[in-house]
Specification:
CATH architecture: Alpha-Beta Complex
Helix content: 25-40%
CATH topology: Amidase signature (AS) enzymes
Number of domains: 1
CATH class: Alpha Beta
Bound molecules: glutamine
CATH superfamily: Amidase signature (AS) domain
Number of helices: 18
Structural class: alpha/beta
Radius of gyration: 22 Å
């Protein structure tokens, strides 16, 4: 045996920062780090179902290349050798990209998304593609055509959505870092219900080139991790200007890593949003939130209450704008150029339209169809002004609410989601109940501002993780990390360890898995 395996099962529990350190000191090789994760995946993903595709060979080859370069004395990126999982809505050359949909089953993109190019350039091995609600529509992964992912805290519960694969992969130690996308909360809500961290950067802060679009004016890719610093390290790799995305911000990535390291909140004014609390919020979630605010005050911040009266209409506006944009973006799935093609039954020489209809009928799930119908209706002439136009006006009012609130507060805070993780099946037949999960996360997408969720603790009534949301003005992403890091330190001090130390061990036999 060349590498004694004794320390390997431990590796998967390390933070990404510690992995990067140990790799740089040559205490561990990238191949060992990747192999430890592949073993962990083999042991637990049957139960959690975080991954749609695992790329063992590709990840090991990337790791080997990093190890060889390190031995040769090359100047490597700080994150070289630290593996990452990528949500299946992000294109990866040579690796399937399904968006959780039957219509893209078997599709292998010919190109990498810009953020993937950046991961590869930094030497970060890609372990695989994570599960998601079909085309990122949902809050639970139950809309995935390939079956739901499960919450490592309780396998009968949802890991959030649409990025439940990326959140559960972290909480079950199957990857130290993951990529998510957030159109209405799909990074933050999954982080909230799994006790992990996730950031939606400022709109335009991370390139959208190579993301399969859901709603282009709302979509934003972002980093997911188990700690605030880890999330910052990934943010720094994936962010920055991209000439291939015309909405990409022409500015360097905000100083997120430094902010996470300093964790300085002295003199910061924190605005508690009056409209994002109270009725509809689970008492245990609210309780953890209030405690977290008190801890930030102890750390040197002050608190003000702010009013955002138009947030009451955010959900309604979002569920007009999103379906409108989605119906137009998804029109490209016509069975002619790529993806599933189904011949209509009982038709001898079907027309292109009949093939399109049969393929879409078979290829799209119920939620996707629902939103396409909603969107085409809202955009149809005669209804456009009443629905889509009106929603755009509300969007402006919400941005104005934020602008006013940020005149009195440096950051705004709220619970990330109104409740802890619900049971699989509980809301599947009630789209409106499902949509209500997003009340606190959606305003940030409508205004294009950055937001983070980190764990605030376990709710007393069910022992499940609750999320704390931080919002900052556009291009001030570093504030999320300063506040998040300060809160994380205070909470870890109070708990005497990381929250995820308490997640049930799904594979007590992991120790035996690595054969060496
Ligand atoms: N749950 C939201 C929705 O269903 C969020 C989607 C997202 O952020 N991709 O639209």
């Amino acid at each position: 045996m060349t590498h004694p395996p004794t320390h390997l099962p431990e590796i998967v529990r390390w933070s990404a920062a510690r992995m990067a350190d140990s790799l740089a000191r040559k205490e561990v090789s990238a191949v060992e780090v990747v192999q430890a994760h592949l073993d962990r995946i083999a042991a637990v993903d049957g139960a959690v179902h975080s991954y749609l595709h695992v790329d063992a060979d590709g990840a090991l080859a990337q790791a080997r290349a990093v190890d060889d370069a390190r031995v040769a004395g090359a100047d490597l990126h700080v994150m070289a050798g630290v593996p990452v999982a990528v949500k299946d809505v992000v294109t990866t050359a040579g690796l399937p990209t399904t968006c959780g949909s039957r219509i893209l089953q078997g599709w292998v993109p010919p190109y990498d998304a810009t953020l993937v190019t950046k991961l590869r350039a930094a030497g970060m091995p890609i372990l695989g593609k994570t599960n998601m609600d079909e085309f990122a529509m949902g809050s639970s992964t139950e809309h995935s055509a390939y079956g739901p992912s499960r919450n490592p805290w309780d396998l009968d519960r949802i890991p959030g959505g649409s990025g439940g694969g990326s959140s559960s992969v972290l909480a079950s130690f199957q990857a130290p870092l993951a990529i998510g996308t957030d159109t209405g909360g799909s990074i933050r809500q999954p982080a909230a219900v799994t006790g992990t961290v996730g950031t939606k950067p400022t709109y335009g802060g991370v390139s959208r080139y190579g993301l399969v679009a859901l709603a282009s004016s709302l979509d934003q890719a972002g980093p997911c991790g188990r700690t605030v610093l880890d999330t910052a390290l990934l943010h720094a790799v994936m962010g920055g200007h991209d000439p291939r995305d015309s909405t990409s911000i022409v500015a360097p990535v905000p100083e997120v890593v430094r902010a996470a390291q300093l964790a300085d909140v002295a003199g910061l004014r924190i605005g508690v949003v009056r409209q994002l609390r109270g009725e509809g919020y689970q008492p245990g979630v609210q309780e953890r939130f209030d405690e977290a605010v008190a801890l930030l005050v102890e750390a040197g911040a002050s608190v003000v209450e702010v009013d955002c009266p138009n947030f009451a209409y955010a959900l309604a506006a979002y569920y007009l704008i999103l379906p409108s944009e989605a119906s137009s973006n998804l029109a490209k799935f016509d069975a002619m150029r790529y993806g599933l093609r189904v011949a209509p039954e009982g038709v001898n020489e079907p027309t292109a339209e009949q093939v399109m209809a049969a393929s879409r009928e078979a290829g799209f799930g119920d939620e996707v169809k629902r939103r396409i119908i909603l969107g085409t209706y809202a955009l149809s002439s005669g209804y456009y002004d009443a629905y889509y136009g009106q929603a755009q006006k509300v969007r402006r009012l919400i941005a104005q609410d934020f602008a006013r609130a940020f005149e009195t507060a440096h950051v705004l805070v709220s619970p990330t989601a109104p409740t802890t993780a619900f049971r699989i099946g509980e809301k599947l037949d009630d789209p409106l109940a499902m949509y209500l999960n997003d009340v606190a996360t959606i305003p940030a997408n409508l205004a294009g501002i950055p937001g983070m969720s980190l764990p605030s603790g376990l709710a007393a009534e069910d022992g499940l993780p609750a999320g704390f949301q931080i919002l900052a003005p556009a291009m001030c992403d570093e504030r999320l990390y300063a506040v998040g890091s300060a809160l994380e330190r205070a909470l870890i001090g109070r708990w005497g360890g990381h929250l995820l130390d308490r997640v049930p061990d799904l594979a007590p036999a992991t120790q035996e898995v690595h054969g060496g």
